[in-house]
TrEMBL record, chains A, B:
Origin species: Rhodopila globiformis
Coiled-coil stretches: none
Family per record: Belongs to the class IV-like SAM-binding methyltransferase superfamily. RNA methyltransferase TrmH family.
Protein's name according to its UniProt entry: RNA methyltransferase
Gene3D superfamilies: 1.10.8.590, 3.40.1280.10
Pfam families: SpoU_methylase
Length: 265, 265
C-alpha cells in the first residue's frame, strides 16, 4: 500500500470526477492531492501549467503510494484545454464575488456530481493555486462554484486539504456504513435473558456477603445496579468474564473471612 | 489572517472537543493539524509525548496563522493524563481489531460529540502517531472508535488530513448553508414575467429577420428556445444584457443588409 515500486494497486472506480489542479506551485502538494484522491476513491488527475514543470519526483515521494494516479496524470496548457472533453465543471472557490454563479456546498456539489456521473457524463473539479486560488477567467469555465462551509475566521485551506474534503465527501456519498455499530471480537451481544442471569448471580452474591442487608434500601440498590449494566451493550464473552469476576471476588472474600476468623481464633 | 505576528484572531467557539495528538512525530504535522482545527472551528489541542519535544518552531511555521491554537496547546506524558478531565473520549482508528468497542463513522462521531458538548460535558478526540496509529492501550482509554469511511484500497491517511475530516464534519454539523444557491452580483433572479418579455423580444426579432419563416415549424422552434432559457435562473442584469445583445445583432444585421443592398446596386 505504501510500497515504492509502483505504489498501491489503484484504478478508476466507476465514472468519477476529474480533479484539475490549476497552476499548482509545489510538487509536494500535487503528491499530497493524489494521496487524498486515493483516500476518497478518485483517480483522474489533470494539471494545468504546473509551476515547476512535470513530472516532479517530489510528487511521487509525497503521495504515500498513490503513484498510479500521478503516473496517469496529464498536463494541459490552459483550463479550457483541461476541461474541453468534460460535460460539467465545478470550481472550488473560498471567496467568490462579483460574479453570477450557482454556489454549492461541498456536500451539495458531490450530490450533483454523483448524479452527473451516474448519467455517464464526464465531470471535473477545479482547484486553484496555493496562494491566489482560481482567477476570474478560470471560474468562467465552470458551471458552478463550490464553497466549503468552514470557520469564516480561518478560511486558509491547504490545497491537499481542499482535495481531501471533496474526496471524502465523494466517497461518503456512496457509503452506507451505519453511524454507530458495536465491533465485537467474534462474541455476540448478549440477550436480555443472559444479562439477567448475570445480574441475578451478582445480586445473590451481594446478598450472601451482606452488601444488601439494608432491606428498605435493597430494591433501589438492586435497580441502580441493573440500570448501570443495561446502559450499554454487553457481549456474551464479557458476561462470562463478569460471572468469573463475581465468583472469584466472593471466593476470595470467603477465604479472607476464614483467614480472619483463624487469626482471631 | 495569515500574519506571522500572533496569527489569526482565533478563540474557542462554544464548547468544542479537545484534539489529542498521541506521540506525534513531526512538528510540521502538528502545525498542519492546528491549521485544520482552525478551519473547522476547533481550538483545544493537547500533545501526548511529542517525539521531538515541545515547543517546535516548525509547527508555528506550518500552521498558516493558527498560532493561537499552538500557543494554548498543552503537553502530557500519557494519554491517561491528557484525558483525565474529559467525560467522553473518541479515538480515531483506521483498522480496529480484536477489541469490543463501538465504532462510529466520522459523521456519526460528530453527531454524538455535538450532543455531548451541548450537555456541557468535555469531549476529546484521539489521533495516533503518523506511522503506527494508536496502540491497544491508547484505545482502551476511549469510549468508542472513529473509523472514516474511505477507499479500502488506500486507507493511508495523513495525520492532518484525519484532523481535517473531523474538523470539517464538526463545522458542517452546525452549518445550515443551503446545498445550492445562486450568487448574484446585487442583481436579482428575474421573474417569469421579465423572462417572458425578453423571449417575446427575441421572437419578434427572429420573425423580423426571417429565422422563423417556416410557419409549420415555427411553434416548435419558439418552444425549444423558451425551454433553453427556462433551464437555469437568469438575473435581471443578465436579461438587460440579453435584450441588448438581440437588439444590437438585429441592428447590425439591418446595417449589413443595407451594405449588401448598396453593393449589389
Amino acid at each position: 500500500m505504501t510500497g515504492r515500486d509502483g505504489g498501491a494497486d489503484l484504478r478508476p472506480i466507476g465514472n468519477s470526477p476529474v480533479v484539475v489542479l490549476v497552476r499548482p506551485q509545489l510538487a509536494d502538494n500535487i503528491g499530497a492531492c493524489a494521496r487524498a484522491m486515493a483516500n476518497g476513491g478518485l483517480f483522474h488527475l489533470r494539471l494545468v501549467a504546473p509551476r515547476d514543470g512535470w513530472p516532479q519526483e517530489k510528487a511521487w515521494r509525497n503521495s504515500s503510494g498513490a503513484d498510479r494516479i500521478l503516473d496517469a496524470a496529464t498536463v494541459h496548457p490552459t483550463v479550457a484545454d483541461a476541461v474541453a472533453d468534460l460535460h460539467h465543471v465545478f470550481a472550488t472557490c473560498p471567496r467568490p464575488r462579483h460574479i453570477v454563479k450557482p454556489v454549492l456546498t461541498a456536500r451539495g456539489a458531490v450530490a450533483e456530481l454523483r448524479q452527473i456521473c451516474a448519467r455517464d457524463l464526464r465531470a471535473g473539479l477545479l482547484f486553484g493555486p496555493e496562494r491566489a486560488g482560481l482567477d476570474n477567467d478560470d471560474m468562467a469555465e465552470a458551471d458552478a462554484l463550490v464553497r466549503f462551509p468552514l470557520n469564516p475566521a480561518f478560511m486558509s485551506l491547504n490545497l491537499a486539504q481542499a482535495v481531501m474534503v471533496m474526496a471524502y465527501e465523494w466517497w461518503t456519498a456512496a457509503d452506507d456504513t451505519v453511524p454507530r455499530r458495536l465491533m465485537t471480537n467474534e462474541s455476540q451481544v448478549a440477550t436480555k435473558g443472559r444479562l439477567d442471569n448475570f445480574l441475578t448471580h451478582l445480586v445473590d452474591q451481594l446478598d450472601a456477603c451482606g452488601f444488601l442487608r439494608n432491606l428498605p434500601k435493597r430494591p433501589g440498590m438492586v435497580r441502580n445496579l441493573r440500570h448501570l449494566f443495561q446502559r450499554g451493550e454487553v457481549t456474551e464473552q464479557e458476561l462470562r468474564t463478569l460471572h468469573g469476576v463475581v465468583t472469584e471476588l466472593a471466593i476470595g472474600r470467603r477465604r479472607r473471612g476464614r483467614l480472619e476468623t483463624e487469626t482471631e481464633a
